[in-house]
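<instruction>
Derive structure tokens from the sequence

<record> Sequence and structure tokens follow
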Amino acid sequence: MNFKVGDEVVVITGSDKGKTGKIVKVLKAENKVVVEGVHVVKKHQKPTGQETGGILDREAPIAASNVMIVDPKTKKRTRIGHTTDPKTNKKIRIAKKSNEKID
């Protein structure tokens, strides 16, 4: 999976299609990501010693195939490519549309 925490992504399919947000959590084993403000579900929480109970809004994981990264230059969705940095010889991620480095 090519996504990292903090990446700006856009949802390309599903009920939240078109929404954008930052990745909060990456679940590599399940091939899913949690995006802030996307796929918000109700969670019934029992009260504990420190917290009160109630119905809370939480972001649920969505499939990584349903999101695409936002190109830093054009601000449109794009695929992720890999190349090596000539200065440091390390593998870096690039946006396929603009060939810009993705941080």
